[in-house]
C-alpha cells in the first residue's frame, strides 16, 4: 500500500481487521520495521486523538516522529498556484511540500474541507498535492472528504463488539453549532458499504451525503424508524453537501440529539462517535456515559488502525530500491 486516503486502499478489509487485531495483541512485534524511519505528521487543523494515536502507533513501530502544526509557528502557506503573494502568506505549498518531504519517510496530513470551493474540497486538492509533490507515502489524518483512519478504527470496534454476524448499523445526523465537514460520515459510509452489515443513514431533509459514499445504504428521514432494531448507533454532525447549501447549517433541531429515549428505540444498541463530541447537542450525558457507549474503546482503536496503516506503508518502502544518498 503506497498511500492511504480511503479504506479501500486496504484491499480485503476482513484481512485488514485480522491484521489489526494481531497488532493489538502484540503492538511491539514490528519494532524493527520503523527503525531509522521518520514519520512527519502535518496538521492544518486541530486534533487530540489523531495526533496522539498516530504518534503512538509510529513509536510502537520503532519510528521517529516529527509533528508540525502549520498554523502555529510555521510560515503561513499559500495553496493556490498563480497568486501574487503580496498578502499574509509567506511560503507556497509547492516549495513547502518537497522541503518537508526531504526530512521524512512517510507523511500524514490533516487538512479539513475549507468550504470555499466544493470542487477543490471534493477533488482533495491539498492531500493530492502532497501525494504528487512529496515523492513519499502519504496518509490521510482527515482530509477534505474522508477520515479513513477513523473509519478503520470504527470497523475494528464494530467487529470486536458485534453480537450477530450481520448487525444493523445506523449512521445518524445530530445537531451542532458549527458547520462541520462530511469527512467522517463519508468515510464511515464508505467503510460500512465494504461490509455486509445492514446499513441505514438518517438525517433531516437537505443533509443528503454524496451518493458515491452513500452507496447501498438505505436513507430514512424518520429517525425513529431508522433506530428500530439497531445494534450500533453512530452519531455525527455534518453540514449540507448539496448545492446551493454546501457547507451550511440547515438545522439545529434538538429532537435529533441522541438521548435515552432514542436509544430505547434500538435493540439495546451500542453508541459510537468519533469524538470530539459536544454533550447534549449530539448526545446526552447519560447515553455517552452508559455501559453501551463505545466512544473510549473506539478512540483507543485509533492507535491500532494507525499502526496497521503505517506498517503497510513501511512495508511498501521495503520493496523499493534502497536510497543511496
Ligand atoms: C471534526 C469533523 O467533524 O470533521 C473532526 C472530527 C474527527 N470535528 C470538529 O471539528 C469538531
Ligand atoms: N476522532 C478524531 O480524529 O479526533 P481528533 O480530531 O481529536 O484527532
Bound molecules: N-acetyl-L-norvaline, phosphoric acid mono(formamide)ester
Share of β-strand residues: 5-15%
Name the CATH homologous superfamily of the largest domain: Aspartate/ornithine carbamoyltransferase
Rounded average pLDDT: 97
- CATH class annotation of the largest domain: Alpha Beta
Class of secondary structure makeup:
alpha/beta
DSSP summary, beta strand count: 11
Tertiary shape: globular
What does this structure look like?
This protein has helices spanning 13-25, 49-60, 93-101, 118-122, 125-134, 148-161, 183-192, 211-214, 223-227, 260-263, 285-288, 295-318, and strands at 38-43, 64-69, 77-78, 91-92, 106-110, 138-140, 168-173, 198-202, 218-219, 232-236, 270-272. The chain is globular. The protein has a five-stranded parallel sheet. The protein has a four-stranded parallel sheet with strand order 2-1-5-6, with helices on both faces. The model has no long low-confidence stretch (mean pLDDT 97). The chain starts with 12 loop residues before the first helix and ends in a 7-residue tail after the last helix. It contains twelve helices and eleven strands. The protein folds into two domains: 7-146 and 302-318, Aspartate/ornithine carbamoyltransferase (Rossmann fold), CATH 3.40.50; 148-299, 3-Layer(aba) Sandwich (Rossmann fold), CATH 3.40.50.1370. With 325 residues, the protein is an alpha/beta fold. α2 crosses α12. The structure holds N-acetyl-L-norvaline and phosphoric acid mono(formamide)ester. Phosphoric acid mono(formamide)ester (CP) binds at residues 47-50, 142, 150, 274-276.
Amino acid at each position: 500500500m503506497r498511500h492511504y486516503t480511503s479504506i479501500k486502499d486496504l484491499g480485503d478489509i476482513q484481512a485488514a481487521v485480522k491484521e489489526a487485531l494481531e497488532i493489538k495483541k502484540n503492538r511491539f512485534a514490528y519494532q524493527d520495521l520503523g527503525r531509522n524511519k521518520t514519520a512527519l505528521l502535518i496538521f492544518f487543523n486541530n486534533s487530540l486523538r489523531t495526533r496522539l494515536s498516530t504518534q503512538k502507533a509510529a513509536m510502537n513501530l520503532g519510528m521517529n516522529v516529527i509533528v508540525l502544526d502549520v498554523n502555529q509557528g510555521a510560515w503561513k502557506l499559500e495553496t493556490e498556484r498563480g497568486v501574487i503573494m503580496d498578502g499574509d502568506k509567506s511560503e507556497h505549498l509547492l516549495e513547502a511540500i518537497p522541503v518537508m518531504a526531504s526530512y521524512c519517510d512517510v507523511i500524514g496530513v490533516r487538512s479539513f474541507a475549507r468550504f470555499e470551493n466544493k470542487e477543490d474540497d471534493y477533488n482533495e486538492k491539498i492531500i493530492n498535492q502532497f501525494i504528487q509533490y512529496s515523492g513519499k507515502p502519504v496518509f490521510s489524518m482527515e482530509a477534505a472528504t474522508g477520515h479513513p483512519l477513523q473509519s478503520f478504527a470504527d470497523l475494528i470496534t464494530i467487529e470486536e463488539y458485534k453480537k450477530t454476524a450481520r448487525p444493523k448499523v445506523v449512521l445518524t445526523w445530530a445537531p451542532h453549532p458549527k458547520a462541520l465537514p462530511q469527512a467522517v460520515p463519508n468515510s464511515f459510509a464508505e467503510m460500512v458499504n465494504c461490509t455486509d452489515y445492514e446499513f441505514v443513514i438518517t438525517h433531516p431533509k437537505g443533509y443528503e451525503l454524496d451518493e458515491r459514499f452513500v452507496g447501498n445504504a438505505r436513507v430514512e428521514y424518520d429517525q425513529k424508524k431508522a433506530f428500530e432494531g439497531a445494534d450500533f448507533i453512530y452519531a455525527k454532525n455534518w453540514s449540507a453537501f448539496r448545492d446551493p447549501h454546501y457547507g451550511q447549517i440547515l438545522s439545529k433541531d434538538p429532537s435529533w440529539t441522541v438521548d435515552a429515549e432514542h436509544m430505547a428505540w434500538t435493540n439495546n444498541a451500542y453508541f459510537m462517535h468519533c469524538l470530539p463530541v459536544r454533550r447534549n447537542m449530539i448526545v446526552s450525558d447519560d447515553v455517552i456515559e452508559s455501559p453501551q457507549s463505545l466512544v473510549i474503546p473506539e478512540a483507543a482503536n485509533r492507535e491500532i488502525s494507525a499502526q496497521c496503516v503505517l506498517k503497510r506503508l513501511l512495508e511498501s518502502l521495503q520493496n523499493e530500491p534502497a536510497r543511496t544518498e
